[in-house]
Amino acid sequence: MNWPTPGGWLERLGQSPDAIEGRSRGIAQDLVASRWSGLEAELAAAMVYAGGDPGLLESISIQGPIPVLDHRVLTDVDMVRSGLRGPIDPGVATKAPGAAELAQAAGTSRAAAGMHLLWQEYGQGGLVVIGNAPTALLCVLDLAPSAPPAFVIATCPGFTLAAVAKRALQDSGLPHIALQGTRGGSGLAVAAANVLLGGQNGT
């Protein structure tokens, strides 16, 4: 059997993974160049590349300073954790011991309860990556005044709390990159986080 199929879509249009990624990243970098430079541009380009959506540019919020990180990382869900690169062992809020019981007692999400339980070990002074749960971001905003993180990445999507939580992050003055509004997702958070972890670019 001949493969790729002679004359098929893959044979005619397919390219090597390096060529596809290189071209796509170049387009994303060109798109952000007029708005940001340096590390801010890398973060924004990684998110635009991961989302495949130039329209994200209008919703990206970046506030510095962007710190040098010691690889202390706290994520909201395992989907985010599974995409992170580098020699790290992050805390995952939804997997925190006791998170389910605390969430039930407080009437909130496991992600929010886990943020509370793991904050001192992973969140305070660390990189907080929230790609899924707006309630986790709300918990971060409550914890940050007395024990601030080094940097927050927030791309949680949704039609109920996401836009409000991310706007509150922008207004808080905490160093962050966030995708304002209802759009988002774990892949965008991972892309930005990997820029900060060991100099990796995106996903």
Spell out the key features of this protein:
203 residues, alpha/beta, Rossmann fold, six-stranded mixed sheet, 9 helices, 47% helix
Q: Please, how many helices?
A: 9
The mean pLDDT is: 94
The CATH superfamily turns out to be: Cobalamin biosynthesis CobH/CbiC, precorrin-8X methylmutase
Quote the CATH topology: Rossmann fold
Beta fraction of the residues?
5-15%
Number of domains: 1
Helix-strand category: alpha/beta
Shape type: globular
The run of helices and strands is HHHEEHEHHEHEHEH
- Name the helicity range: 40-55%
* Straight-line distance between termini: 33 Å
Number of strands: 6
Largest sheet report? 6 strands, mixed
Q: What is the CATH architecture descriptor?
A: 3-Layer(aba) Sandwich
Low-confidence segments, ≥5 residues, pLDDT <50? none
Instruction: Kindly report the spatial arrangement of strands forming the biggest sheet.
Output: 1-6-5-4-2-3
What's the CATH C level? Alpha Beta
